[in-house]
Amino acid sequence: MDSQFLVSLTLIVASFGLYIGIAVYNRARQTSEFFVAGRGVPAIYNGMAIGADWMSAASFIGLAGTVMVLGYDGLAYIMGWTGGYLLLTFLLAPQLRKYGRYTVPEFIGDRFQSKTALVIAAIATILISFTYSIGQLAGSGVVIGRLFEVDAKIGVMIGVVIIAIYATFGGMKGITWTQVAQYVILILAYLIPVIFMSLQITNNPIPWLSYGNVVSELGALDRELGISEYFAPFDTASKWQFMALMFSLMAGTAGLPHVIVRFYTVSTMKAARWSGAWALLFIGLLYLSAPAYAAFSRFILMKQVAGSPIDSLPAWTEKWVNTGLLKMADTSGDGILQWKEIAISNDIVVMATPEIANLGIFVIGLVAAGAMAAALSTAGGLLIAISSSFSHDIYYRIINPSATERKRMSVARWSILIATVVAGIVALNPPGVITQIVAWAFALASGTFFPALILGVWWKRANAPGVIAGMIVGLLVTLTYIFLAKFGGFTILGIIDTGAGVFGAGSAFLTNVIVSLSTKPPSQKLQDEVMDLRYPEQLSYKDGEVWKDDKVI
Amino acid sequence: MKKIDKKIADAYFHARVRLIAVLLVIWFIVSFGMVLFAETLAQYTFNGFPLHYFMGAQGSIIVFILLLFVNAYISDRIDEKYNLVERKSKPAKGQSFQS
Questions:
Q1: Which residue, among A426, A421, A459, has the nearest Cα to A441 in the 3D structure?
Q2: Start-to-end CA span in chain B (Å)
Q3: Fewest CB within a 10 Å sphere: which of A262, A522, B8, B30?
């Protein structure tokens, strides 16, 4: 046991002790609190909670590495995952809040007055959240496995136990305040290494201002090596793939069940708008730093690691080479390690860079603690979404409407536990790299929920057959395209599996509109309910007249 | 409950829709627009960055954040103008209250 192990372990245990302590302290007592935390969370903290929910293993562990490997093309993730918040805040959040249903499937079920639509939406929620949480658990496995120098599979199992404990007993109230603590830890864990590297390389403590010149210098280094420049656009994929992926991530963000539910946790629409703005500011801090992280990592690898003699590489290389995620072979046989002879996996860049740059054991341990917070906090939100879809939408509304609150609580807790364990089993052998798995979840959300929600709140003519057909077609098209592109080599305009959502969303919009128009319009009552969504929360629309509620809401 | 003129309610709705439309046009230009013209932007440099890279890595994100704050601010002003400021329910002393 070396000192690095002890420092990292202490930091992770201390931070998780903090989260679990908060969760236990706030242990939910009532069902309504369990799901939306009693609607009493101030906007700025809710913004941090959204941030922690949002910044997953894909953002924290995978993103900088993806940008480093893909160059400009990796920025589709940065723009997509931030730009989607605008669609969500402008086009969906106010209406969904006013409609006042706890979950997205419940909204779809009531808006279209259809149990079939409700069940399809609940299944889609479970499918999306489940896919997403596989990525998170796989990420936690990589971190724990590397840290304790155990197999990643054992790492996944440890992650499953931790997440199951606090998601099952904390509920969302616990998680809202837990998320605030997690946000603070993970943003510090991300910024500190970037700032240190910025000082090391550019003597400027503000990475966002300093790394532009590093990017240009990387391009110059690439030109010397005769490879395409780091920042060259559309080098690894077509322009269409860039835009399809960006669209898919944006529309997926707007349709992600565990993010939408956060807009219910504040008491007024005004507070919801400000939470959304704060959330993107807090999220943006990490997203603005990821390309800097990527540039500094690549710069250090090119200048300090490449070019050194193959038989005197620094100590950190061996540990990472042993994980199989880093390959360094002197293929040219000149005794010198060349840049082209280094093959580094996207998923280890954030974890390995503090070691490469020699930032000290405390920073390395902090990054590990932050990575765990990122993986497990998002998994927490996702598992709550799975559990409420199952216990509330499928169990309570369809299977057993006379269930007592106690019974529903117990179903909610059991479904969290079962979902965690099953996701953990799949994560033992993940079907792709973290960012890829997460991009599939977003593609599924953009193919099913995005069209259903947009048409549901903005178009009163959209009806039950339309939304049912739309969601089924969107789901099938997205799934089929992902499988064909990944395993069948089939692509349109160079769009690969991660950009599948654009076809899913397109076909779902089209199907929804055509089927809605060729079937009976929804009842006057439902159309009035959609008209009602035009007005703010204290106005209500009835029989062509608008009424204002002067009482407190 | 009191009835209010539907024209006023609709004026409120249209003010909100106009605001959203303007903000989404800007959103589209700084995201998809910047990608469509990436090759052209690549010829310019900003703060050491090739311009297309700067937009993707920083420019667009900063504009997105600003748009959300602008929306929150202007929406509050619209609410005030139409006298629709929401009041938070505050439980009275000694009374348990659930919203």
A1: A426
A2: 18
A3: B8
B7 in any annotated domain: no
Query: Which of B35, B50, B68 minimises the CB distance to A280?
Result: B68
Our CA-based measurement puts residue B93 at a distance from the nearest CA of chain A, in whole angstroms, of: 16
Q: Highest-confidence range of A38-47, A420-429, A503-512, by mean pLDDT? A: A503-512
pLDDT tens per residue across span A409-419: 888 888 888 88
Q: Mean pLDDT in chain A?
A: 83
Residue B9 binned pLDDT confidence (cut-offs 50, 70, 90): confident
Whole domain around residue B46: which residue ranges? 23-81
Asked whether residue A82 is assigned to any structural domain, the reply reads yes
pLDDT surpassing 70 at residue B89: no
* Residue A170, token pair as written in the block: 């904390």
**What integer is the mean pLDDT of A169-189?**
75
The answer to the question of residue B11 being in a domain is no
d(CA B9, CA A447): 33
The residue among A307, A275, A214 whose CA lies nearest residue A37 is A275
Q: What is the pLDDT of residue A168?
A: 67
Expressed as residue numbers, the domain containing A15 is 3-26+43-544
CA angle A380, A386, A388 (to 5 degrees): 100
Task: Express each pLDDT in A238-251 by its tens digit.
Answer: 889 999 999 999 99
Closest CA in chain A for residue B26 = A86
- Domain-located, residue A34: no
Better pLDDT: A215 or B64: B64
3-state secondary structure A273-319: HHHHHHHHHHHHHHHHHHHHHHHHHHHHHHHHHCCCEHHHCCHHHHH
Check if the beta carbon of residue A379 is closer than 8 Å to that of residue A164: no
Q: What is the pLDDT of residue A40?
A: 61
Does A209 sit within 8 Å of B72, measured CB to CB? Answer: no
Distances (CA, A) of A469 to A222, A449, A466, A477, A514: 50, 12, 5, 12, 10
**Cβ neighbours of A82 in B, within 8 Å:** 60-61, 64-65
Angstrom CA distances, A109 to A117, A276, A388, A431, B51, stand at 6, 25, 14, 32, 46
* Interface mutation vs chain B, best among A41, A535, A541, most B CBs within 10 Å: A535
- Biggest CA–CA distance in chain A, Å, is 83
Main-chain phi, psi angles of A22, to 5 degrees: -65, -45
- Is the confidence metric ipTM above 0.95 for this complex? no
pLDDT tens column, A283-302: 999 999 999 999 998 888 88
B32 vs A213: which has the higher pLDDT:
B32
Q: Which residues of B touch A206 (CB under 8 A)?
A: none
What element of type H or E holds A325?
none
Higher local confidence (pLDDT), A54 or A447: A447
- Tell me which DSSP letter residue A268 carries: S
Residue B69 lies in a domain: yes
Q: What is the pLDDT of residue A76?
A: 92
Q: Look at residue A38 and tell me if it is in a domain.
A: no
Taking CB atoms and an 8 Å limit, are B50 and A216 in contact across chains? yes
Inside any domain, residue B17 = no
How far off is chain B from A152, nearest CA to CA, in Å?
32
Q: Tell me if A536 and B86 make a contact (CB, 8 A cut-off).
A: yes
Query: Which CATH number does the domain housing residue A236 bear?
Result: 1.20.1730.10
Domain total in chain A = 1
Q: Does a structural domain hold residue A375?
A: yes
Which pLDDT belongs to residue B87?
A: 58
For B68, name the nearest residue in chain A, comparing CA atoms only: A277
